[in-house]
Amino acid sequence: MSHTLTVLWTIEPQTPPRPWLACSRCRGARPFECSGKTRLNANGRRLDAWLIYRCADCDDTWNRPIFERQPVRDIAPETLDALQNNDSDWIRQVSFDVEGLRRNTDRIEEFAECRVTRRVIAHPLEVCIQLEIALAVPLPISMRADRLLSAELGLSRSHLVRLAEAGRIKLLAGARKALQRPIRDGMRVVLDLSEARDQGAIADRARGLFQPA
Ligand SMILES: [Zn+2]
């Protein structure tokens, strides 16, 4: 264990997905962006709730249904509270819910860029020959594991494939071909760096110490 560097990477997407919808004002399909605002409407003892989106070109609105004609007693108190207070964390969570958006449209634009926050969990006592990366992915994300590792560790994707074939990279809580699959919360990546020539540089990148020349 003394040769293992363990880090936690928290990966958060930056831009919510944009549904493409027919905009009546633009007279064609346009991307709509989440406005960060909700609308709640009471109808006797039943409630409607929407998340408001705006056409990227003309600002026309689209109300994304969160629920419709729902009896008040069936709504979770924290959901009601979030809607009444325009809770930004809750809204952010819903705005990244791609699966939910698919109920409204098949055409959804997703954005790859995300922010990676690194935290060292355990330092190696000696030379780092094993790197263990725990992934925290609080919001759904379409980033593939190989893209993430390639961008963040400075390794080419073909290099990653070679490491995987040599059994030097393991994705725990991942299926076969997991390198090509989207990352998931709770995934762990274990890299055997014993044969790597640039193990120091890889370890520095993993913990966020890398300074581009
Ligand atoms: Zn429009």
Strand order of the largest sheet: 7-1-8-10-9
Major sheet attributes: 5 strands, mixed
What is the count of distinct domains?
A: 2
The strand count comes to 10
SS-based class: alpha+beta
Helical content band:
10-25%
- Ions, cofactors and other bound molecules: zinc ion
Order of helices and strands: EEEEEHHHEEEHHEEH
Please mark out the parts with pLDDT under 50 across 5 or more consecutive residues, or reply none: none
Strand content: 35-45%
Cα-atom radius of gyration: 22 Å
Number of distinct helices = 6
Name the average pLDDT: 90
Q: Whole-Å distance between the termini?
A: 31 Å
The global form is elongated
Question: What is the compact description of this entry?
Answer:
The protein has 213 residues and is an alpha+beta fold.
How would you sum up this structure, described in words?
The protein has 2 domains: 107 residues, no CATH class; 92 residues, no CATH class. Helices cover 22% and strands 38% of the residues. The protein has 6 helices and 10 strands, in the order E-E-E-E-E-H-H-H-E-E-E-H-H-E-E-H. It has a 5-stranded mixed β-sheet. Strand 2 and strand 3 form a beta hairpin. The longest helix has 9 residues. The two termini are 31 Å apart. Zinc ion (ZN) binds next to loops.
